[in-house]
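Work package 3, deliverable 3.1, input record:
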Amino acid sequence: MSPITVSRALRNPDMVSDELRQRIDGAVNKLGYVPNIAASRLASSRSHAIGVIVPTLYNVIFAEFLQALHEVLLPVGFQVIVVNSRYSIEEEENAIRTLLGQRVEAIVIVGVNHSKLARRMLIQSRIPVVEAFQIAPEPIGINVGLDQIQAGADATRFLLGHGYRRVGFVLGQRDERAVERLRGYQLAMEEAGLFDENLIFSQTGTSSIALGARVMSEIATHAQLPEAVFCIDDNLALGALQESRRIGLKVPGDIAILGFHDLEFAACASPSLSSVATQRYEMGKLAGEYALRLLNTGKPGERRTVKLDHSIVRRQSTP
Amino acid sequence: MSPITVSRALRNPDMVSDELRQRIDGAVNKLGYVPNIAASRLASSRSHAIGVIVPTLYNVIFAEFLQALHEVLLPVGFQVIVVNSRYSIEEEENAIRTLLGQRVEAIVIVGVNHSKLARRMLIQSRIPVVEAFQIAPEPIGINVGLDQIQAGADATRFLLGHGYRRVGFVLGQRDERAVERLRGYQLAMEEAGLFDENLIFSQTGTSSIALGARVMSEIATHAQLPEAVFCIDDNLALGALQESRRIGLKVPGDIAILGFHDLEFAACASPSLSSVATQRYEMGKLAGEYALRLLNTGKPGERRTVKLDHSIVRRQSTP
DNA sequence: TGCGAGATTGACAGCGCTGTCATATCTGAT
DNA sequence: ATCAGATATGACAGCGCTGTCAATCTCGCA
C-alpha cells in the first residue's frame, strides 16, 4: 500500500476499492493519523482556504457576515481563515500579509479604505478580492456593499420628513462606515439648510449600549435638546433609548430615536426602536459566492459592484 | 545571495549584515514576495499556530475571550486559528481534526464535554490542551474555568435570600454551561425545598435580548407569576426586563430579575440589571498563558485546574 | 482463448522552505 | 605577519504530501 494510494483513499474514497478503503480507514483510526495540511498545501499548491478580514468580533454584524461566509464556503471544501484588524490600518496590512503567506485563494475584506501598501499587496496577489460593507469608489475586484452615505442621508431625511429641524447624529468611534454615514447625514442636513456641527454627539469608544447611554446623558445636559437623533447603530440607539427613559424623556415625544442595522433586539425594545435595516447575512453570502465564482471561472481580476438595499423600519421610537 | 540567506534575513534580521538586509528588503518590496507559510511549517515542523474552538461568535463573551487570547499570543509570534463549532458535537470533532491537520501547537477549547472521539484525538495529539469556561471533572490538560454549578446555585440563593420562594429560571438553548447553571439552580431550590419544574422557563433559540422578551411575555401569561427570575445570561435578562416594563410589571417590585456575566450594558439598563459577574477576559488571558507555558516547559500533558471567581453585582433589578 | 477498455495501484519527483553543518570572511591581539 | 575566534554566507537534504504518468489487474466480448 503506497503513500499515494492512502492519499487518494482519504481524498477521493471512491477512487479506490472498498477493501482497501476499509483497511486504510481502520489504520487511520487506530493510529490517529491526521494528514499534514501544510504538506498538502505545499504539494498541491492549493490552500483550499479563503481569508476574511474583519475589524472586530465584538459587533454582531460581523458575526452574521462571517456566519454566512462559513455557510457558503465550508460545504464546498474551503477553510475560512478569519483575521481581526482591530480597526487599524497597520493591523490590516499585517492581516493581509498573514493571509497571503497562507496562500489563501481569495480574500474577503471589510472596508474599502486601505493603505497604499495594503492595496498593492491585494492587487499584486492576483487572487480574487471582495471588499464588503461599503461601496468602493475604486474597487479592487468585487465589491459587495451597502451605500452607507445614501443610507445615512435617507435616515436623516426620514427624520427631517417628520418636520424635525434639530436632528442630531450620535456616534462612537469614527470608523470608515461611521464616517460615511455621517457624511450622508451632513449632506441631508445641509440640503435642508439645517446642518450644525453642534448636533453631532460623539464619545470615543466602541459603539455599545453603554456608550449610547453615556452620550445621551451628555446630550441631556445641553440647553437645547435635539428633537430627534440618528444613532450610528442600534447599540448606541438602545443605550440612548434606555437613558432617555431613565431621565424621564419621552420617546419619541421629547426626543425621537432612529438606529441602524435593525438588530434583533430593535423590535422588542420598549418603545420599540425604529432602525435602518441592512443585510449583513446576504452580504456575506454574496461575498462568498462571488469569491467562489471568480475562483471557478479563473478571472481573479474581474470587477463588479453589488449594491445591497437598505430600508427604514418604522417603529415606536420615531413618529 | 542564496535562498537560505534570504530566509535568515527575513526571520532574524540581525543575523545578516546591514547591506545585505537592505538589499533583500528592497527586493522583497519590489517583488511583493511573501514567504509560503505552508513550506515554512513543513520544513521547520513548527506551525507557530494555536487553535481555539468556540461554540459561536454571536455571543460577546467569546469575543472577549478570543480578544484576550489574541493579546497574549500574537505578540509572541503565534497565530491564533479560530474555529466555530456551532454548539455541535460533530462540528467540534471536525474542528479538532482541522486544527490537528494544521499542526497547531496547542488547542484551547470552550467546554469540557467532548465526544469520545474528540477526547481521544485531543489526548493522542500530545499537544497542550486547555479547556475553558467550565470546571472539568476529568480535565484533559489545563482547565481554566468558572464553577458554573456553584455560580448558578449562588445566584439562586441570592434571590432566595431576599425571601422569594417562587424563583424562576430562564434559559434559551441548553448548552453545556446553561445546563450546569441550571443544575446549580436546581440544587439551591431543592435545598430550600422549593424546586418546581414549572418554574423553569425556556424557549429554544440562541439566547438574545429578543428571546428574553419572548420568554418573559410567555411567563406573564401564567396565572401565578414568579417573584424573581434568574436568567441564564444578561441578554435574556435585558429582554425580560424590557418586556416586563412594557407590559407594566414593576422590576423588582412585581418581579426581580438577575442576569449572568455582567455584560457592559447591565449597568446602564433601566432599572439597572443585577448580574453575576464573570471573568471572560481573564479566562482567555490565563488560557493563553498556560498554553504558552506548557509549550515552553515541554510538558504538554500537565494537568491543572484554575477556578476563576464570580461575584454577584447587586443593582436595581433585584432588591 | 485472447484482446482492449476501464478500473486500480504504484513510482517518481518536486512543492518552497529551514535545520544542520561547512565554508568564507573579518577582527583584533599577539 | 599570524591566528584564534567571531561573524557572515552557503550547500545539502528533507519536511509530508500530491500531480503526473506508467504499470498492473479485471472483465466483457469477439
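The two ends of chain B are 75 Å apart (CA to CA).
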